[in-house]
Amino acid sequence: MTGTPPGVTWCVAPDDERAARAVWSALAEPGDAVAGALVQACGAAPALAWVADAVATPHPDWAVLETLGGGGDDALRRRVGLGVARWAARWPALDPERDRAAAQRCGARLVVPGDPAWPRGLDDLGVLTPFALWVRGAPPVADRTLAVVGARASTTYGERVTVDLAVELARRGWAVVSGGAYGIDAAAHRGALLGGGVTHVVLAGGVDRAYPAGNARLLEEVVRAGGSLFSEVPPGATPSRARFLQRNRLIAASAQATVVVEAAWRSGAASTAHHAARLLRPVGAVPGPVTSAASAGCHRLLRDGVAVCITDAAEAIELAGDVGPDLAPTPDAGVTRPTDGLDPLARLVHDGLARRTARDVTVVAARAGTTVAQARAMLGLLELEGLARRTASGWVVADGHE
């Protein structure tokens, strides 16, 4: 850094991307697109060095705008200038060593893009990709991850559906990611644990702070069971409304698909669904009673075509685009009929029979749309298969068959 803001006692080496990303996670608010663009264009360490100079000197080197693709763009210069002003206000409070010590105390570690533990789906966020994650446990890097979110003010119906959904997802080998809040989020985490699976909690504050406090025991159980708590802000950071809204983009990006169980007309859960839709990730919504305000947001997502209807885990897995035995069955899947496997002509003749009314072969042929000779031949075959029976007055469906 060629310029050092007053009072700063720490520095980051020009090639230390990991340390620089840790600083950026404290310097810029989640979802700061200007900071994200700067880091993507220059690299975390060079971008941090430029900000240090811009904060320390009255006339920073605006050549950096060329890197951003807008050297002569006054609007871009204003946006970057406003970013510098925001970062300058926060700069004196930065203390990377304090953040590292706090992470060590709570058993957290720093994960950055390119690390094996980095959730690859986050990269789809572009300039809104978090600079780093502070993680307790093992973050969701596997492909089989579904987000299950919903209202804090949930109903008994919503919580029951959520637990059932998460239990079955876990039993089928899927991880569940949610926000750790009261209501549907907590039910999703509990269900995954009950199903013997893993679940992940995306926090709006530091991973050293159980929020909400009433879910502290649940959050600890998540980590013990092999899941994780993770956040894009350092330990010690406090949650805020803006951070909750930005946190939703991480939930959506961490999963292959998002399912909303209950959501009010305007809600954070609906925000998560829209983040997923913008990422071109599938979105599902569980319908509720049309009289329930708790499901109004789900019905809105369904009506607007943002989401598809989800009623169980198999449909949620199908939504995520998986293939194989976990997919939702068709309404009559698993039901076999005596006529399954018959020649199409034999099936037509069988359909021309009745159970109680005996029919002459000519009547059967007329109903089946075949010739009399074809009907006679197929009736003989059906009799051998036990699917038709000859009586004194004609042919009927054999007893015990449809």
TrEMBL record:
Residues 110-318 form the Smf/DprA SLOG domain. This is DNA protecting protein DprA. Belongs to the DprA/Smf family. It comes from the Bacteria. InterPro entries: DprA, DrpA_SLOG. SUPFAM superfamilies: MCP/YpsA-like (SSF102405). GO terms for biological process: DNA-mediated transformation. Transmembrane segments: none annotated.
